[in-house]
Amino acid sequence: MSTTLLLAEGEQDARAFLERHLRRDGFELVEHGGARPDLVLVADEADVDRWRGEAAVIVLGRAEADHLDRVRAFRRGCDDYVPRPFHYEELVERIRAVLRRSAPASEDQQRLVAGPIDIDLATRVVHVARTAVALSQKEYALLVRLAAEPRRVFTKEELLRDVWGYQLKGRTRTLDSHASRLRRKLRTVDPATPYVENVWGVGYRLLGLHP
Questions:
Q1: What number does CATH give the domain 4-102?
Q2: Alpha-carbon distance 8 to 75, whole Å?
Q3: Domain residue limits, the chain
Q4: pLDDT, tens digit, 9 for 90 and up, residues 20-38
């Protein structure tokens, strides 16, 4: 089944451009009032309210938008925010990333395993070396994001966007404090594994390199 998108885009040139290329890339475009879309591209953060809970939402920010507009869009519940002018290839990758995050997990996707860590995504229970570990909501969300690609270094901007839902480079203390608490809880159970490594100047990865 193809992925269905709805374009709530008022600029005719941008709409025609997106319609042409998104169809070529295998997306099915639907009209408002028709089939329920998997994802909606909106041009105004106020439109997030209309679609939140019905479909994934990406805001294509207005040309004059600033960081406050982005913050308000995320507070309304959008899944991502792409400022203009945007690069089409990046937009498509962001669409695919949002769709992956919002897709319901199949039975074989109910567990996430990364080294000694075993995460039951259905019950949100985390085991480290077969020992249950209690995590806060944000600690759990941060762990799941890192465990998806445990050796990859995630930038702080990526983690702030995906876990906290905003794109403010200056607000990293929240991330750093949660990463520190998560590291401490994991290493309390398994001190031999280098969990939640801080890669200086870049971000974090779940499973660091052994000394």
A1: 3.40.50.2300
A2: 20
A3: 4-102, 107-207
A4: 999 998 999 988 777 788 9
